[in-house]
Amino acid sequence: MQYILALDQGTTSSRAILFDAHGRSVKSAQKEFRQIFPRPGWVEHDANEIWGTQREVIEQVLDLPHSPALVNMVAGIAITNQRETTVLWDRHTGEPVANAIVWQDRRTADVCNALRAKGYTQLLQDKTGLVLDAYFSATKLAWLLDHTPGARARAERGDLAFGTIDTWLLWKLTHGQVHATDPSNASRTLLFNLHTMQWDDELLKLFNIPRAVLPEIRPSGGHFGESDSTLFSRALPIAAMIGDQQAATFGQACFSPGMAKNTYGTGCFMLLNTESTPVTSANKLLTTVGWQRKDVATNKSLTTYCLEASVFMGGATIQWLRDGLNIIQSAADVESLAQSVSDVGDTYLVPAFTGLGAPHWDGHARGTLVGMTRGTTKAHIARAALEAIALQVADVFDAMQKDSGLALSELRVDGGASKNNLLMQIQADFLGIPVIRPSVTETTALGAAYMAGLALGFWSDTAQISSQWLVDRRFEPHLSEAERLAKRARWHQAVERAKGWAQD
Ligand code: ADP
Measured from the CB, is residue 318 less than 6 Å from ligand 1? Predict the structure, then answer.
């Protein structure tokens, strides 16, 4: 067996990637699917279309139905997925009862506000590690049960199944034989207790969710079943399921406490490994399950927890320079434009276009550009945009260090904007520690592949994986401590000016 097949089911596309024993991506296929916006603030996916595109890219990458050569070299399947997105389907027909409600969907914000007003925030943080927000699955599932005719009664009779996308794909791959999820996905629902590692009756009651719809919870790496033999010419073991950000952390080989990765995509996602301790955040970061694995020697399930923080406007700030201001043609152009000036000339862009997340949490903050003079040019603004990404990441990085009490010695990076060398250098300067970009930046799919490969014996242990993790480039900090602190302080002054602006 030469390959692990990783399925990376994302928000806008489904991908399939074959990884070899060195962790190299040898072949991949990708297909986009529809984003459905029925009303302002609502975002849906057609779960059948998700499965259809996923199946198509698997066939494409395996040369099916033309040749069985590749599929015969596949040791097993790994699933990683967009998290929190909620699917409800009929157990008998396998048909979704409605469109999936996507993580971005805000239709249940009022339900969350009402629960907050009743004082449930603390209970939810204690049990789930999450903030009470429409982002997570519980209120989306309750909405589907309440707004689909007959759904609640059918759910109570045991006729309906709930799943996040991992669970949905597993159901389809096994032809309805297995209804299961893993703790990294379950810990994003607001229904899962981080301490017992089980669904929590008190939470199920609070959100009015019948237990009968819930999937079984199994370790992230292990035996989830086999794909139906009629699908890909032979049955393939499904050996991992893990949410996308946790998978990226695993793919970055952040196996020890104090190791962290940041993904620079549309937004930025930082995760810090806190190993067996679910650290409670005092800075409104999320506590989440990283992954759960069976220890081979003792056969015990070991859980790794993470602290997680997101920055809403990461690479999206660069999209705004391109599409909103039209000062660059493509995202990659920002680097040369920003490099054409040596500094920002005391100009700061606070990209609070949709408010500010951790550690500020101000929904009324709005985008602000301060400090301009007659000498300010688009190059300064481009540089200020890159600095803004790095400064926001530095703020959540500080919050993580404070919450965890861990001093981080480096930051591993990936995602589209991590290709930008100037941004990575600025990031190292503002953090005061090295920023390290690996040679494989497909870390999400790779992490899932590693999780499956370890369960299948394709790789022997995490030490082997750590040795495969190769550095593309290491960015060392150049600013002095005093310069760095002055920069960060000036940024915080700019952030204060962005806060509380919106009047709604
Ligand atoms: P996602 O997975 O969220 O779609 P990607 O990891 O594909 O995101 O990264 C795309 C984002 O990275 C876009 O927001 C884009 O503006 C930004 N980006 C891409 N290349 C660069 C670059 N060279 N410099 C800065 N930002 C970039």
Answer: yes
